[in-house]
Amino acid sequence: MTYLDTLFDISKRVGGENNCGYYVLVHKKHKRVVCFRDSKEVIEFIKPKFRHSTLKRILYWFITKGFHRWFFDKVLLSSRLGDVIYIANSVKSFDLEEKKVLVFKDSKEELLNDIASQIFLQSFAAKVLEIDNKGLYFKEELLYDMDLSIKDIAKKLEEFQRFTGYKYIHGDFVKDHVKVDNEGNIKFIDWNFKEGNPEEDIKNFMERSQ
User: Fold this and answer.
1) Residue 122 CB-density burial (10 A; 0-12 exposed, 13-18 middle, 19+ buried)
2) Quick one: residue 16, left, alpha or beta (phi over 0 = left, psi -120 to 50 = alpha)?
3) What is the pLDDT of residues 167-199, one digit of tens each?
4) What domain count does the chain have?
5) Does 171 share its domain with 101?
6) 46, pLDDT greater than 60
7) Close Cβ partners of 76 (under 8 Å, ≥ 6 residues apart)
8) What is the dihedral of CA 15, 20, 25, 28, to 10 degrees?
């Protein structure tokens, strides 16, 4: 399935007419896609996706100057998808006004497993707001980027590790996986549970934050 197939599929699942324009940026090597509507707020929201290399920062500068209007592909999708769509290991769309995220899954089993995991995680992950069994997606609260100290992150990881009996670690833990909710509470995204030494989480974080 191509990224266009995925985009049209999730647009169909949420319903509505395909009459809203999204600019599309494709990272072919890593098979990642960023789709975004053209507004100052949206462009500011996607900024963290472009901070990991000089080339990405230059590309983001061109977006802030409006060059995407001439050089990026554009696709018409349902406005119900919100403002930003990310396709990577998962498919998510972000509605900045309603402060919610739509998380799409390929099967009902996968949908229910992910929802069960997030409910199990309670205060460590985004809160599940609504489930659409027919469309195979659920809505969760919108989380935000914030500069946080290693001490605060380590403290939250310690809480998580106590909660799980010092058994599970996050996995490929990087700075982008650390967010905050509207109340400023630290939460984690893109969970990848596996058994191991809990200290691996913070070790991975430190190594990948250099």
Assistant:
1) exposed
2) left
3) 777 767 788 889 999 999 999 988 777 788 778
4) 2
5) no
6) yes
7) 18, 19, 20, 21, 22
8) 30
The residue out of 85, 117, 141 marking a domain boundary is 141
19 and 120 share one domain: yes
Domain that holds residue 17: 3-141
| Segment 7-36, tens digit of pLDDT | 999 999 999 999 999 999 998 765 789 999
The position carrying tokens 């599929």 is: 9
Which of 141, 167, 188 is the last residue before a domain boundary? 141
pLDDT at 95 over 80: yes
The residue among 99, 106, 83 whose CA lies nearest residue 34 is 83
Angle, vertex CA 101, rays to CA 17 and CA 6, nearest 5: 50
| 33, two tokens | 């896609």
The encoded tokens of residue 38 equal: 């053209």
106 and 62 inside one domain? yes
115 with 156, same domain: the answer is: no
Q: Are residues 57 and 110 in the same domain?
A: yes
Report whether pLDDT(161) > 90: no
- What φ, ψ does residue 148 adopt, rounded to 5°? -125, 150
Residue 193: predicted pLDDT: 75
